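Review form for a predicted model. The reviewer records the input and the model, then writes brief findings.
Reviewer: anonymous (R2)
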Amino acid sequence: MADKPQKPGAVDVLRGARAQLSELIGMPAESVSSFERADNGWQLRIEVLELARVPDTMSLLASYEVELDAQGELTGYRRLHRYERGRADKNN
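Model under review:
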């Protein structure tokens, strides 16, 4: 009897999602701001450094919604919005 493939744990999914998104878009993923299990995998929001500026508080970041399958493979992403690092979110 064959063993079921082991599903990755949350930490492995987070690390893998950041690495996969960075490789696809060519920009560094800085942090994961939300993370949840979805029907067929995982859904995350990842903050990405899109343009480094001096001072760092003026750098441009973007928030990406990322979808992964149950094994942690990226199946889709989209940029939700861009913002300066030093600015507070207007919705808070």
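Findings: The chain has a mean pLDDT of 91.
Further findings: Strands lie at 29-38, 41-51, 60-69, 74-84.
Recommendation: see findings above.
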